[in-house]
Amino acid sequence: MLQIKVLGSGCPNCQRLERETRAALDGANIPYELNKVTDFADIAAYGVMSTPALVMNEEVVSSGRIPKHEQIITWAHKYETT
Fold it and tell me: What is the pLDDT, as a whole number, of residue 80?
């Protein structure tokens, strides 16, 4: 199962990234577990300087923006097998 983390303070863009990620993965029938990381020390441990950020299987795939559904699905297919 794909492990997803949304890194951010809980701001509107962080919430939007979570909604967009869930919608993309649900629409593509990709099983996942999503967790939100809001602690700044934990976010910094990923080397992220700009939020919101998206992590798949412990690898940062996006930061500082909200990727399109197609990009989220492409990353998910790449990381669901690793």
Answer: 83
pLDDT at residue 26 in the model: 98
Please state the rounded mean pLDDT for residues 8-22: 96
What's the token pair of residue 58? Answer: 């412990």
CB atoms within 10 A of CB 73: 17
Helix or strand or coil: residue 75?
helix
Report the C-alpha dihedral over residues 24, 56, 59, 55, rounded to 10 degrees. 70
Please state the domain extents for the chain: 2-79
- Rg of the chain over Cα atoms, rounded to whole angstroms, equals 11
Peptide bond into 67 cis (omega under 30): no
Give me the CATH topology for the region 2-79. Glutaredoxin (3.40.30)
